[in-house]
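**Backbone shape codes:**
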Amino acid sequence: MKFMCECGHPIYDTTDYLSYKAHLISDQDWFDFLEEIDSAIEKSGPSEIDKEKALMKIRSLSSNLTKKVYQCNKCRNMFFYNNPPRLEVFRPSSDSVNKKLLRSAHGDKWKGFLNGDWMDNNLAWRVKGFITASCLDEGKQYDDWEILEKEYYLVFNELSANNLLRSSSLKKNGNVFHTWNLTALWRSFN
């Protein structure tokens, strides 16, 4: 999804882990949601299929109970995406409103992502390569594979050293050159 704020700034919802997007649950629905989680933990059967059914029920409920909320990074307007599908805008009362109201409760300590991708012969892209990362306000575009690869590893090493990375991947022409995942690393230690 993509829409334009009143100020002319584009707002994209084309990936996960967006710092300007949140999922809002009404207080009227919050305790129903918590009860469903409790039920899934306490009453799901012992088999993997039972656990999977309970998990899918919680995910479905969370999708049905939440509204998507977006904040414009430029003017701070807030947009609520309601059912039936409709955007409603709320404007800040002053210029001092925080531009990062929807970011993680972990703030600067949130573990993010890093992705690099290169395609030699992709006519759909205007450039051959790009890097997207949670630490970047916008993705970076590249016309040189060696520069893209070098910058990918610089960002990877910085995020890893600061314990700010949950996953990363570097691909060239569909082939994976590098992949890293915090969850897989954590599981290997347990």
User: Anything to note?
Assistant: The CA atoms of residues 118 and 129 lie 4 Å apart. The chain has two domains: 2-90, 107-189. The helical segments are 27-43, 48-65, 145-161, 182-189. The chain has a mean pLDDT of 86.
